[in-house]
Request: fold
Amino acid sequence: MDVTLIIDSLNDAQRQAVTAPSQAMLVLAGAGSGKTRVLVHRIAWQIQVEDIPAHSILAVTFTNKAAKEMRSRVESLLNMSTQSLWIGTFHGIAHRLLRRHTKQAKLPDTFQVMDSSDQLRVIKRLINTLNLDDSKWPAREAQWYINAQKDEGIRARHMLDTADLHQRQMLRIYKAYEEICDRSGLVDFAELLLRAHELLRDNQDILDFYQQRFRQVHVDEFQDTNTIQYAWLRLLTDGKDNLFVVGDDDQSIYGWRGAKIENLYSFQKHYPNHQVIKLEQNYRSTGTILKAANTIIANNTGRMGKELWTATGEGEPCSLYAAFNEQDEAYFVVERIRTWINEGGLRSDAAILYRSNAQSRQFEEKLMATATPYKVYGGLRFFDRAEIKNALAYLRLMSNRNDDASFERIINTPTRGIGAKAIDDIRCIARDQSLSLWASAIVLINQRTMTARATNALIGFLELIKELTTQAPDLELYEKVKFVIEKSGLIELYQKEKMDKGEEKVENLEELVNAARLFDFDRENEEGMGELDMFLTHAALESGDNQGDDFDDCVQLMTIHSAKGLEFKLVFLVGMEENLFPSQQSVDDVGRLEEERRLCYVGMTRAMQHLYLTYAESRRLYGRESYPRPSRFLREIPSELIQEVRVRATINHPVTPIQIKNSSLQTIGSYKLGQRVSHAKFGEGVVLQIEGSGAQERVQINFKTAGVKWLMLAYANLEVLQG
Reply:
């Protein structure tokens, strides 16, 4: 039998994993080491060489895209259809099992699967039915709580009442939610997994059937499995030693959403006859990038142990840039990308990776200013995010009472007891009498046709907008924005979302304050617009259609979490500072700190040829000014692997990154970066950036009292201060 096509292209470790006799196996696959290739060729080997029928093989992964790619590659390798092969996501396979056994799963034949938004709507209606104040008991928090319990295999009936009011109320919602779903034949994503596990656990005949049918079970990204996923994998393979898993403890970065890195360690206990094979040859990155990543991840304890290497050469050192502030950081990164493009590089081969979504704004603004197409991968552009749009809607309605879109967006955000009927009545009056929604709301109040509660809630909303308008005029723009997002209740709303998304939304709102602080207001604008209106126009122009499509040649912006599984020739890992990366929440928690280090490892190993690491000596983020220390992860990289980049020069073999300071002033044009100057109106400040030339030359200065300003040098009349 000719097996050349299956094994000839594999390295020794890959070939060992593909051709190993059937047994429990853990393949530790480092970043860029060809894990998908191993899974595909293993399945092909079992079908062609071991004569295992395709319908007796189960392969489980996490995304539909990965499942589709796996099936396509197996078919291409064997040149045959694999329709009978069970390849799919955990949720897809669970759904397939439940559809086949609805009666035993205690589901109606016509059960419907809800996506996350459908589930949230059901929970919102339930909270209203229970007469709970949804401002105190947000639907998103209840959704997170319910799904977290299901991911651990916990039903409401398994939980005991406690003296804790919050726990009691969450349990009450969970019980009522289960009753609604059972009565309506509704199944959410978490329920798919839990009920599939219960189906196998509670029906021995069904379990026996699938244990006999699936002679081989393969799992991709095993480090990302949660409690219930691993539990039903164990049921399917109990006593069979036929579980083949591919994973990497060094890339376990989803603990915050339920992934259990412990499953990797438990596998070795539950399958004592297992074999471990390590894939350490990397086909993506240069030797220097891999050495830097290896030395960082080596600081984590309890690792299974592997070290990536490559046969493709050492490559250039990792570049380190110490920025003056976050604007200098963004300017540097965008200019390097523009150089890359000018030298023939594709925009889509360049990626900016950050720890927090709020960091994207500075890079977006610089890319917009240079007309460089970009795409925010796996998320929305800054000014397109819902929480930002909500805050801007308050500001727009303050500026223009006839802004119906803004009125409708925030009339019940945060929820204030204005129901759907009242809003429909306002719309009807507006249509029939050709009024704005604001004016229609006043008409509705005067008609006195609503309940007292709804009337008071609507009056309260109108009074809130009036109060914001009368109290904000004399405030600086950034103070006005901060006042509005706090007084409106938006900050409090998102703080109650007890999950990472809520925290991220708060950070984005705080970054909106920073955007307002740094907004370059042209008082001599031809339209005669005020600062708030100019800012709102700026926000509108930076949202919407300017984002590139999936297939356009665009610079890629994304969180490091979103970058997992991707690769780029040019990578910028930005914001490498203590309390940002690693995050402030992780620095005092060993477990979370190690996950942050794994995240850094993932970010670095996305780079194929060029890796830039940047940090700022001062940063205004989430509306706060800080002077952070460089990230501990930078200290963990040997100095011989790093090249420090300066504006006009590069320095090889720098001192330890934590000690790097911009002690020497660098001259650009007629001023020096870091130079102290004085302005007649704004007082003393420090030069941060200089752009342009001749009459168009402008300078960015951080003033002690006025904050950061851009000034045209031709009109600034700056005085240079000594010392």
